[in-house]
Design brief:
2 copies of one chain form a homodimer. The first copy, chain A, has 326 residues and is of the alpha/beta class. Chain A folds into 2 domains: 3-48 and 148-322, Rossmann fold (3-Layer(aba) Sandwich); 51-141, Rossmann fold (3-Layer(aba) Sandwich), CATH 3.40.50. The first copy, chain A, has helices at 3-13, 26-32, 50-60, 63-66, 77-89, 103-111, 126-137, 148-167, 183-195, 211-218, 244-251, 260-274, 280-291, 312-322, and strands spanning 22-23, 36-40, 70-73, 93-98, 115-119, 140-141, 172-178, 200-206, 256-258, 300-305. In chain A, the strands form 2 sheets. A 6-stranded mixed sheet of chain A has the order 1-2-10-7-8-9, sandwiched between helices. The longest helix of chain A has 20 residues, at 148-167. The radius of gyration of chain A is 18 Å and the shape is globular. The N and C termini of chain A lie far apart (42 Å). In chain A, 59% of the residues are buried. The A-B interface holds A 15, 18-21, 23, 26-27, 40, 42-43, 47, 84, 104, 108, 111-112, 167, 268, 271-272, 274-277, 308, 312-313, 315-316, 319-320, 323-324 and B 15, 18-21, 23, 26-27, 40, 42-43, 47, 84, 104, 108, 111-112, 167, 268, 271-272, 274-277, 308, 312-313, 315-316, 319-320, 323-324.
Chain lengths: 326, 326
Amino acid sequence: MNIDMIEAAKKRLKGHARVTPLLSSPFIDELAGRRVFVKAETLQHTGSFKFRGAWSAVSAMEEATRKNGVLAFSSGNHAQGVALAAKNHGVSALIIMPTDAPKMKIDNTRALGAEIVLYDRIKESREEIGEKISKDRGLTLIKPYDEPQVIAGQGTVGLEIIEQAKELDVDAKNLLVCCGGGGLTSGVAIAIAHYAPNILVRPVEPVGFDDVTKSLAAGKIIKNKDGSGSICDAIVTPQPGDLTFPIMKKYCSAGLVVSDEDCLKTMAIAYSRLKIVLEPGGAVALASAIFRKKDIDDGDVIVIASGGNVDEGLFRSALQKYGNSF
Amino acid sequence: MNIDMIEAAKKRLKGHARVTPLLSSPFIDELAGRRVFVKAETLQHTGSFKFRGAWSAVSAMEEATRKNGVLAFSSGNHAQGVALAAKNHGVSALIIMPTDAPKMKIDNTRALGAEIVLYDRIKESREEIGEKISKDRGLTLIKPYDEPQVIAGQGTVGLEIIEQAKELDVDAKNLLVCCGGGGLTSGVAIAIAHYAPNILVRPVEPVGFDDVTKSLAAGKIIKNKDGSGSICDAIVTPQPGDLTFPIMKKYCSAGLVVSDEDCLKTMAIAYSRLKIVLEPGGAVALASAIFRKKDIDDGDVIVIASGGNVDEGLFRSALQKYGNSF
């Protein structure tokens, strides 16, 4: 993995992925006690940054291999990204999704033309199912984060942030990233280390699923105790990736951890102040900027709002609880 | 009013107003039966395009006049735009708002540092109140639409659309604009007539408040019967402006009319498919693309999503009713 792969992915994504805006609000600045800049990847195609990695991977494949189709396992955002990237390349996609994935994510993935196989997140291994189907049907597996071209695609978020932050005269010491397996975090970290080494990239995770934060602190991979139990479905992964962890260890600073409740509050704040829809897992970075301010270095802060695929019932309950609190 | 004023406004807005993205979704394309491109002005500072016109007007004032402060009357979006533009220019703002304006709009305008005077939308004339205070206190009135520099600022939305549509290979015959007094519609119409004369600009209004549609059909200004009664508060104006109507008459094609219920549906669709928050009045143009498709010329269509300042209760009810319907 290196910066050249990210630059190459940027070229392949041009005209296909969206350049998402870097948003801000004086009201959020006041809540956070500093200027906060929000990279709104929720506005990316399929509602999350995952489309970048998926497009990067599918577009990098040899035509002869690609035409046999692709396969992915995902709680929903990588699923939708791969489904749309495959569809727009004219090839088939099979996606393995957990039975407890948000309904919207399963429906969207199917509507984007993918074939869906459901599995039990607790009892079954998606990796095993994926490898078996991949072998049986000649499909190429596109892993959600431990895959160089996926990491390269996610890294293009970092390239855009560097450019946009310059235009807006942002002087940030910390860039906070919603972190699951670490594909986005490691890709962005490589880009930032290359072009803006003064900015520290920091993963943000939900309470109880802070495997990356713990692993970075310990210097070795540490697994989460539980397999499920957070509303942040998009970033509940068992442990950092074999490929992403060494990158994060090299380039990232200490992780931050936020509660599910802080995510709900942040969803209500992003609704009223930025006019964007965030899912819980896409809200953790902004949540940490607002609710963990003492743990963040002084100065402006940049956060990635990574996705917005949230069932309307959960979104409504966030608004009902906190819509008038901030 | 001419294109040079819009180009000049663009220069004054650079670095202050946000270049908002032109969004799309395969799901919305399917609902509309064509490609739909959504200019997301809900992502503009203060949550609506109104910041552009406000910044344009405040930045165009002579310094000696500006320092005495500005005054505006508005149901809330122009209010917030003027409040922030004044604040960022270091001058005071007094805003006259109807008592029935959404709570969020009143709160935000106050939080942006403006002084608020409330009036009764039915019994009192905001124009009369405004002119009196303006005279008494030496404040410069910035009208919400019948003001050349405001129209020029709103017209910059059209300049951006032309550029972005070119990048995305959009081939549209209709550009649909949420229309109240006609400031946005007339500004955009001048820009489009100059740079993309093949695109027809069409105002969109809520049922019962289709004064522009009726006036365009009659060739003369026709007032609405009622003063209130639509959820589309942002675009419920008594009649087209004296300045904006001749421009719309010269450059615009027939108007379109949508129901409040279609606006609620569209808010739910924009939530789930674009991840943006729309207020009812900011949703009418997209609503017409989806629910009035037979009345729109064939080919791609571009719509402006003009604002997103909606109280959370109303937004929740839109999601509850229609969140799972599309």
